[in-house]
Specification:
- The chain has 447 residues and is mostly helical.
- The protein has a single domain (12-426), classed as Up-down Bundle (Growth Hormone, Chain: A), CATH 1.20.1250.
- It has 19 helices and 2 strands.
- Strands 1-2 form a two-stranded parallel sheet.
- α4 (79-89) runs antiparallel to α18, α8 runs antiparallel to α9 and α13 runs antiparallel to α17 (320-355).
- The longest helix has 41 residues, at 360-400.
- It is globular, with a radius of gyration of 22 Å.
């Protein structure tokens, strides 16, 4: 190692792994989680800040939904360049830089959060917070390179779950501020995050490493773009992660607009769902390691459709307890699905390499190349699902004053995700034992 660069990294070699590789990978994972956690908190700041925006701000419910949708959109778009920055600059170096970059949107929000600020200024600052969403993509790409295939579900699930917990943590912090100081003091929340951002960047600089074997591979990117599985998995990730982040952004505002909750009442309820969903993500990854990611993803979508049916009923009946039960279940199930879907990415591309006649290290290498390149694209498209959810809520509340129509649309989408998972990854095709010169098609049930 020279200047925090590791020249040799062979996690699939069990002797290398036991001799110190595992210890190094776990250390990098721990501080990756910390930095990604802060990134998620900054990305989802506006899910809390809109609760501080009373009538004196002059922003209606549709305008607030558009603020959080803007942050979601930017967070999705920056995931693509963030993914490739790891290989260009090194995982450690990029983590330090991207963490320090979070100071910009947080300080900007601190400056503008007061009545009388033009809506266009709020919109610009909300867009700036989107850069926190990019930290997820670079973090997941980096950690994917550190761990062997047999531990990827657990490692990626823990990395993402620890980051996702940034959503309920910032919401709990907002609840604390509203409960103690009142809804007129959003700057207390923002001021608390500024030193935390500096601390996260310092820890990354001191304790993380760059992997020299990880290099930008434009050929892999081009191949990943042409791979149908990239876009199929992105579609499924819209259903899992798009649901988690979209609901995380919108939950408090839905409670205010649909059930007449005050800012304090909404803030006291919004954190539980994202917290449980974040904790469920590594569980979904672990289950996928044991049972197969496709199976766990299928079960998750079936259960999400059922939970959405409960939410539709509760929305029509205006039953807050039933609504909370169904909505919390959606968070937990989306967390499980996040873990299992992300586990599928490296496994599917490894299986595809085998399908093309490769074996052993050659198949492992191709699987790593394609999955590493595809992760940024899949993560970006998945995050756009959060944008779709917030825009659907905005239109539903603008047109009917409730979120019922949006939830019906989500129910239909989960049914489509379930059908795609079954058809592509679990259904045994007719005549699969015979291929027109290509041999048997492998089953994807274990991916």
């Amino acid at each position: 190692m020279a200047g925090r660069w590791i020249e040799r990294w062979e996690p699939e070699d069990e002797d290398f792994w036991r001799a110190g590789g595992e210890r190094t990978a776990r250390r990098n994972l721990a501080f990756s989680v910390l930095c990604e956690h802060i990134g998620f908190s900054v990305w989802t700041l506006w899910s809390v800040l809109v609760l501080f925006m009373g009538p004196e701000y002059g922003v209606d419910a549709a305008g607030k939904f558009f603020l959080i949708a803007t942050a979601t959109l930017v967070g999705a778009l920056v995931r693509v360049p963030y993914t490739f920055a790891v290989a260009r600059f090194g995982g450690r170096d990029w983590t330090v830089f991207s963490a320090l970059l979070l100071l910009l949107p947080t300080a900007a929000a601190w400056l503008v959060m007061e009545p009388g600020t033009p809506y266009s200024t709020f919109l610009l600052v909300a867009a700036l917070t989107g850069i926190g969403g990019g930290n997820f993509a670079s973090s997941m790409t980096n950690i994917n390179a550190f761990f062997p295939q047999r531990h990827k579900g657990w490692a990626l699930g823990l990395n993402a779950g620890g980051g996702n917990i940034g959503v309920p943590v910032v919401q709990l912090a907002g609840l604390l501020v509203i409960g103690i100081a009142g809804a007129a003091h959003p700057r207390l929340l923002l001021g608390a995050y500024l030193p935390l951002i500096v601390l996260a960047a310092l820890c990354a600089a001191l304790f993380m490493d760059n992997l020299a074997p990880v290099r930008n591979d434009t050929g892999a990117v081009r191949r990943a773009v042409r791979e149908p599985h990239t876009w199929i998995l992105a579609f499924l990730y819209v259903g899992t992660f798009g649901s988690f982040i979209g609901y995380g952004f919108a939950f408090g505002l839905v409670l205010q607009s649909g059930f007449g909750r005050t800012p304090l009442q909404a803030a006291s309820l919004t954190f539980l769902g994202p917290l449980l969903g974040s904790l469920a993500r590594p569980v979904g990854g672990r289950l996928a390691d044991r049972l197969g990611g496709a199976r766990v993803t299928l079960w998750a979508f079936a259960a999400m459709a059922a939970a959405t049916g409960v939410v539709v009923y509760a929305s029509i009946q205006r039953s807050l307890p039933v609504f909370l039960a169904g909505f919390t279940a959606l968070f937990v199930l989306s967390g499980l699905g996040n873990g299992s879907t992300y586990k599928m990415i490296p496994a599917v591309f490894r299986a595809e390499a085998g399908r093309r006649g490769l074996a052993g290290e050659a198949a492992d290498a191709l699987g790593r190349r394609l999955s590493g390149a595809a992760m940024g694209l899949i993560g970006a498209v998945g995050a756009l699902g959060g944008l779709g959810i917030n825009l659907a809520f905005r239109q539903s509340f603008r047109g009917a004053g409730t979120g019922t129509a949006a939830f019906v649309a989500f129910l239909v989408f989960y049914g489509a995700c379930l059908a795609v998972t079954w058809t592509v990854y679990l259904r045994r095709p007719a005549g699969s034992a015979e291929g027109a010169g290509t041999g048997p098609r492998p089953a994807y049930a274990e991916v």
